[in-house]
Amino acid sequence: RRQRQMCIRDRDYSIQLDSVLEHDDGKFLWFHPRVAAMPRTGGSLRVVMTLQQHLHVSDFYSGLYVMHTDDLGKTWNGPEARPELAWRDEPAGVVRAVCDVTPGWHPQTGKLVAIGAKVRYKDGRQLYDKAASRAAAYAVHDPEAGAWTEWREIAMPDTGSKFYQVTPGCTQWVVEPDGSCLVPIYFNGPTGACSSSTVLRCSFDGRTLVYIEHGDEIRLDVPRGAGEPSLITYAKRYYLTIRNDVKAYVTSGDDGLHFDPIRPWTFDDGAELGSYNTQQHWLAHSEGLFLVYTRRNADNDHIMRHRAPLFMGQVDPEKLCVIRASERVLIPERGATLGNFGAAPINERESWVTVSEGVWNDGARRRGAKGTTLVARVIWSRPNTLVLDER
Questions:
Q1: How many Cα atoms are found within 13 Å in the side-chain-facing hemisphere of 121?
Q2: Low-confidence ranges of the chain (pLDDT < 50)
Q3: Partners of 241 in the beta sheet?
Q4: Which of 58-74 are b and which e, b meaning 16 or more Cβ less than 10 Å from the residue's Cβ?
Q5: pLDDT computed for residue 42 by the predictor
Q6: Cα–Cα distance for residue pair 358/30, rounded to 1 Å
Q7: Distance of CA 171 to CAs 31, 325, 381, Å?
Q8: I need a labelling partner for 291 at 20 to 30 A (CA). Which of 209, 230, 331, 377 fits?
Q9: Cα–Cα distance list, 94 to 4, 91, 127 (Å)
Q10: Residue 335 in contact with residue 364, Cβ under 8 Å?
Q11: Are 292 and 281 in contact (CB under 8 A)?
């Protein structure tokens, strides 16, 4: 029976793995590639990828670069450094950048919105010396004009205490039917090492994201707490996955702001999923909900934090677990980490998972890693009507 289930699920989609870039010169790696699809006049589609340079110091990133394809990845333009999205200088040798960016299409206004975390650096080291050293930042792309705004911040309440530091890092966010945006964040007060997670509801008029309210404050009294939340809506319910140093967590709720108590991710046989200290992301098809993740126990002890290969498994939306028989390798490991990735719908036939290889030593190179930016194209056997509904 288990083999039969696997075959049935295997026929639901195929995987095509494309290489977009290769770069490994010891100075930087392309990192955090994430995509969003923009409908164009006449029915065509442009896919925009945002990415940046990891400068070979932990969590030290350049300004944002942009690529795009008009033929579903056969050819790419870029990467292009956009001056609006570049570093900004502050006094005393401090620079400000925005990293961990996720772009998304806002159909009600016809704009592309890139949401990420503003960070401040000095000598390659992140600073937390004042309120909003980490803040929720966004930039807006007007496809008609071909222009980007500069980075702005979502104005938050209580920045002196509760929202002293705010990070919408590597997060999947949701556009509601009324045009409001549900943006997961993690946040810290002036003291305390453990982050909490919540979801912001923001209005968007095509130019400005405005905080309206936030939902449940999800806490974990475990090292670093609840971080890098990602949200998706499926079958009229909202699902949230949360990173933690020890294990990954999941919850769901009715409105995108309020959720049931969190629980660790498991397989459907009750065994722990084994994903930890890195992000997980969602893909949704009209006939199923899927999780993309890394985990232990995959002959991958040589990979830092077991951050490769990238797996995809179907989720039981009622039991909130991954169906073990459905698990497939989306992107094989070849010595590099694959933990900082993105997942997004493209059209009714394809969803994409995007990642760049983290090449940190010669051992990774000997196993075949080349600093490659990869697109795993999940090609559905039946149309994904969720994409048609959203656009």
A1: 21
A2: 1-8
A3: 230, 250
A4: eebbbbbbbbbbeebbe
A5: 80
A6: 9
A7: 15, 27, 27
A8: 209
A9: 58, 6, 9
A10: yes
A11: yes
Predicted pLDDT at 9: 52
Tokens of 338: 């694959």
Q: Which amino acid is at 219?
A: R
pLDDT at 6: 33
- pTM of this prediction exceeds 0.85: yes
Residue 33 C-beta-side C-alpha neighbours within 13 Å: 27
**pLDDT of res. 191:** 85
The token pair at 323 is 């169906």
97 is written with which tokens? 């950048």
Q: Which amino acid is at 386?
A: L
For tokens 């490659």, name the residue: 372
In the prediction, which pLDDT does 104 show? 98
Q: Which of 262, 278, 258 is nearest to 320 (CA)?
A: 262
What integer pLDDT is reported at residue 390 of this predicted model?
64
> Using an 8 Å Cβ cutoff, are 365 and 26 in contact?
no
What is the pLDDT at residue 156? 97
The three state secondary structure string of the chain is: CHHHHHHHHHCCEEEEEEEEEECCCCCCEEEEEEEEEEECCCCCEEEEEEEEEECCCCCCEEEEEEEEECCCCCCCEEEEECHHHCCEEECCCEEEEEEEEEEEEECCCCEEEEEEEEEEEECCEECCCCCCCCEEEEEEEECCCCEECCCEECCCCCCCCCCCEEECCCCCCEECCCCCEEEEEEEECCCCCCEEEEEEEEEECCCCEEEEEECCCEECCCCCECEEEEEEEECCEEEEEEECCCCCEEEEECCCCCCCCCEECEECCCCECCCCCCCCEEEEECCEEEEEECCCCCCCCCCHHHCCCEEEEEEECCCCEECHHHCEEEECCCCCECCCEEEEECCCCEEEEEEECECCCHHHHHCCCCCEEEEEEEEECCCCHHHHHHC
